[in-house]
Amino acid sequence: MAWKKPDWLDASHVQKVLRNHERDESIEVFGISVKPAVAKGDNYTSDMHRVAVEFFRGRNDRRIQETRSIIVKVAPCDLREEWIAGLGVFDIESSMMSATLPKMQEILGKFSPESLGARCLYYQIEKPTHIVIEDLTKDGFKMAQQQLGLDLNHSVLAIRNLARFHASSIALKEKYPKAIANYKKGLFDKDHPIAMKLWLNRSLRSLAKETTSWSELNPQIPEKLCKLSDVMYEKTCEVALYREDDFNVLNHGDMWVNNMMFRYDEQQKPIEQIFVDFQFCHWGSPAEDLLYFFGSSLSDDVRLQHRDLLVSEYHTTLTVTMSKLQCKTAVLSFDNLQAILKKRVLCELAAVAATLPVVVFEEREPFNLEDVLKTNAEFHHPGHRGKTYRKIVTRLLPLYNSMGILDV
């Protein structure tokens, strides 16, 4: 579907947003320019618009001119609409960005000055459902080059910030127990609309069909994948099920490369990372975020050589941050962290089947989520045909098979 600017996204609406956020009725917007904020196929649960704004405001008896860039995230009005509404993701994200995330940031305070996410300027749940946030590109943040996966420098930054995110959520729950009460459903929940089941099960079935011609694999593996595809979503929901007696945190919930931005120094080395897209935040095991990140976003070199290092970096940062924040919750031991990662490794396979092919696909053919949602449609994920993807997955699938997670 071709990009189209929403009719309601005009100077008058943007003026209302800025006046409300800055509590300044003198703001007069006289010009806006609206463009797509991300490439086609890079965002599935919303439509993203970058708005360049020109406006006047009164200050000390003077009328001064300013410019601003904002991001407007809009609930889709196509085949995805019913699915998105059923998920309630805009309610979750608006709550996260307007209330929960600022509290987490405040708790981190002087111990960790790095930002966890962008500021929310405005949100509206009634139609047209949308959220307005600050444009992080003005501060030098940008998306990483995703095709080869994140290298070690990017991955370490992301994993340390994830640990701070998790630690601050524990401190938040201890201080305000009700603050996380509404964050119950992540990507994998049995009560989600059937479209979520279709997304994962059809992605795995597509992978199963593609691998039948891969001579590198034992023929049993495609057969197992095909059988598993009938129940993959249900089994992943069981693995991800919240358990009160576990070590739990507020998960980002959709922890992959497209949901983070980085800032770089003059040598283009990443020096800061920030999260975007908080639509699937939920209280549960940190293994979900870690495994989804490992399965979807690492370069193969990092996946092969440095996975243990990333787990160690996460655990160290989590432990240190919880100590600084004086959390009463007992810290998860390193051995227990390794155990919960092994126990929930199906979450990693889910990312490998459904998200990794989007990340590494060489042709950059946009992935159309609507193709997955069409009833009774035969779905072939274009990313499963990629050479890079095949190289990675022919090594991973035998490993998963040896762990027994491909068996129904």
TrEMBL record:
It comes from the Eukaryota. SMART domains: CHK. Residues 131-324 form the CHK kinase-like domain. InterPro entries: CHK_kinase-like (IPR015897), EcKL (IPR004119), Kinase-like_dom_sf (IPR011009). This is Uncharacterized protein LOC107223044. The gene is LOC107223044.
